[in-house]
Amino acid sequence: MDKMKVSAIQMNSKIADMNANIENVKNLIKRDVQDDVDLIILPEVWTVGWKPDEFQQSAKYSNLAIEFLSETAKKYNSWIIGGSMITEKNSQFFNTCPVFNRCGELVCTYNKNHLFSYYGCAEGSFITKGSSPVMVNIEGINVGLTVCYDIRFPEIYRAYRKSGADLFVNCAAWGLNKPVPWECMTRSRAVENQTYMVALTQSGYVCDDVYNIGHSRIIDYKGESLSEIKDQKEGAMTAVLDFKEMYEFREKCRCIDDIKDNYEVIKV
Q1: Which of 32, 88, 200, 249 could anchor a disulfide with 59, C-beta 3.0 to 4.6 Å?
Q2: CA distance 167 to 165
Q3: What per-residue confidence (pLDDT) applies to 254?
């Protein structure tokens, strides 16, 4: 594809209520997503909400979400990046991002590589970090998958770019009290790699006076916002990504060619 029409769903998940969250996604897609969308994206842990001590229990019901996403992909004839959900394998739990094609087939999964365990949060106490990045080819468009805290590590995005990424996706449940990092880092990952970025997070109340930030955005390869949801409301943002235009820009401004093979620091 030279162009891809993308819709991303900003939502407020109910803690540990898989059925309610599935129903909410179903209604938001029906209300806000157009029929000719090529790719639908959901936020991090939309199935359970951001409450790490509920993560392991929610993994028991991950198949419900998988089945729902598969059916939704077929119904809308769209690829789906299913945000993330908690899965279990060999007695280990992972924060897993699944990807489905238009036929509803599970094409790949990405397990969150960096786990946030600061400021009283303990994600790393309940789940295991993933072992490697995953880039999925969506009808000729290479998409690098990341989840929330991964955004703080430019190394993973540079690795995707060097491997041919056209689009980055960061599915998050980002806290309201960290607006500057969310604004700066999502935009920076796009600019420094000359790559489209979907920065999608949950919105609204979590628990214990904790809120998600909302303010999801689709950002182009120059750092401009193509579509965004500025407040806490639930809904979809949609943009058409023009990859031919992006590659023409990369040819004019070949910053990637100027990266040195080695940046050994001289200490004086």
Answers
A1: 88
A2: 6
A3: 94
- Residue whose C-alpha is closest to residue 94's, from 117, 124, 118: 124
Six token digits for residue 213 = 């930030």
Nearest to 5 by CA among 48, 45, 34, 47: 34
What pTM did the predictor assign? 0.96
Q: What's the confidence (pLDDT) of residue 120?
A: 73
Using H for helix, E for strand and C for coil, what is the string for the chain?
Answer: CCEEEEEEEECCCCCCCHHHHHHHHHHHHHHHCCCCCCEEECCCCCCCCCCHHHHHHHHHHHHHHHHHHHHHHHHHCCEEECCCEEEEECCEEEEEEEEECCCCCEEEEEECCCCCCCCCCCHHHHCCCCCCCCEEEECCEEEEEEEHHHHHCHHHHHHHHHCCCCEEEEEECCECCCHHHHHHHHHHHHHHHCCEEEEEECEEEEECCEEEECCEEEECCCCCEEEEECCCCCEEEEEEEEHHHHHHHHHHCCHHHHCCCCCCCCCC
b (16+ CB within 10 A) / e for 191-224: bebbbbbbbbbbbbebeeeebbbbbbbbbbbeee
Averages of pLDDT over runs of 10 residues in the chain (268 residues) are 96 97 98 94 97 95 97 97 97 98 98 89 93 98 98 98 98 95 97 98 92 96 96 95 98 94 95
